[in-house]
Amino acid sequence: MARAVSTRTRFAWTALAWTIAFLMFFPILWTVLTSFKTEAEAIASPPSVVAFDWTLENYGVVQERSDYMRYLWNSIIIAGGSTLLGIAVAIPAAWAMAFVPGRFTRDILMWMLSTKMLPAVGVLYPIYLICIELGVLDNRAALVVILMLINLPIIVWMLYTYFKEIPGEILEAARMDGANLRSEILYVLTPMAIPGIASTILLNFILAWNEAFWTLNLTSVDAAPLTAFIASYSSPEGLFFAKLSAASTMAIAPILILGWFSQKQLVRGLTFGAVK
Amino acid sequence: MGHIKLNQITKSFGDVEVIPPLDLTIENGEFAVFVGPSGCGKSTLLRLIAGLEDVSSGHIEIDGRDVTDVPPAKRGLAMVFQSYALYPHMSVRKNIAFPLHMAGMDQAEQQRRVERAASVLNLTDYLDRRPGQLSGGQRQRVAIGRAIVREPAAFLFDEPLSNLDAALRHGMRMEIGELHQSLSTTMIYVTHDQVEAMTMADKIVVLRAGVIEQVGSPLDLYREPRNLFVAGFIGSPTMNLIEGDEARKHGAHTIGIRPEHIVPGDPDGAPWSGTVGLSEHLGSDTFLHVHGTGLTESITVRADGEVPLRHGDRVGLTPNAERIHRFDQAGLRIA
Fold first, then answer.
1. CATH number at residue B271
2. Which of the residues in chain B have pLDDT under 50?
3. In principle, which of A252, B13, B34, B117 could form an S-S bond with B145, CB 3.0–4.6 Å?
4. Which chain A residue has its CA at the smallest distance from B94's CA?
């Protein structure tokens, strides 16, 4: 039954929603605006919102001072590599837990999730020391593996949830039809789970892209991704807000564009199974 | 071919034994129906034959070959599931061709078989649709199509009609029956509906709690139920069961008489009499529920469709003496 909602109520809710959305988006908007200001205007009080001399100067300086493309490339390799590796590990794991659950499946899932509750800094020392021992500090491959492990619980959980929605009888039908395990996963399970797998990949890529704790602590030059690129503008000679904003804008632009184009997929993925 | 033999098979889930040691033979070309109340183990038994569950002990033979440890795909059986279990991302054509594709059959032969199956099942116009665009009956036909293209040794049906409405169910029942006539392949069919069992089967296997209560043709089970459970399960409306003095008169602990073997008439001189309670008018028949006979709470009688009896009328009941079934204390039939 549809409830009658007065126009005024509807207007109020819409306004509230827009306000909240604007508040959440504001820091990003402000960063982008600041990146087009001069350093003096960036710290001016009161700040001007649009009535300032728009300049691309900061972008030029940032590009000159540091090699943006190298950081970008590192980000792509680390985020992309950890995501693909994670998916490759998680699909069989989630398959097993969803379709051949054992006595401890539930506990294993909870245990995996519990590792996400541990503050990352708690394991910084051991992981840092292991990296030194193995000689893989500031190494892209090492970061790919570490970020994969950090995000693995989330990937497995998401895939497990999607796989649970697939009726087991369909996989049994495939088995009766002559499919071996490989064909079953390749021709039946994966195509049916593609929307779920796609949103898992997207979300995980974004998480890995934005991950700053490990990338900042375990890299310096060779493997430094865009998070380190931003960080490099925040300290030595004091704060230069305009340049820091330009660097930040450049760092978040790729992921923002990716997110914009895939938002439908992301929303579907995150609400999957919530409504049948 | 399709001769299936179960040899002392058992199945336990953890500590719970759902199928105690069981022997059963299904002959080549036979239409066997496993029937029983829900939870009786009939679906589990079918899944054991399919290979979707492993037996806990015992052996399964198909055409003389021991398949106990053979994976489902290699047993040469095809299965139709209650939920149809179609591949939602594939067209009807691809769904039906999937087992052939898995078997590595060449494209031309796949095409030929799919089209033949589609024409048998009236699916030719739907080959390029997705399962989501079909009705329940059409989906069930696709599932059957996917089973027949493989030319299996036997078909396994797991309550295939439960998701269909009554009219469609009747139609599909006829179609499956026709299919069995034309293919003469062994079929094993699981249902909880005794009407489906009676109308389709060559051989009915009545199960309760994993135990076979009786195996036989529909009429064998109807005429000579081996025990009270089968007597009460087979036949609609169910058999009237009477205990006490009336049963002792026949030298039994319980006697059973089917509604169609009792003739209603004048209360004077009839062996039993009572008052008509609810009467169900089906047109062709009327089922009278007679109370106050002193035998049991209510006796069901199948009378002529236009019997002039109404609620509250006195009625005499004459059972057909030759059709009285006698059971002992343990509920077993007395020959």
1. 2.40.50.140
2. none
3. B117
4. A187
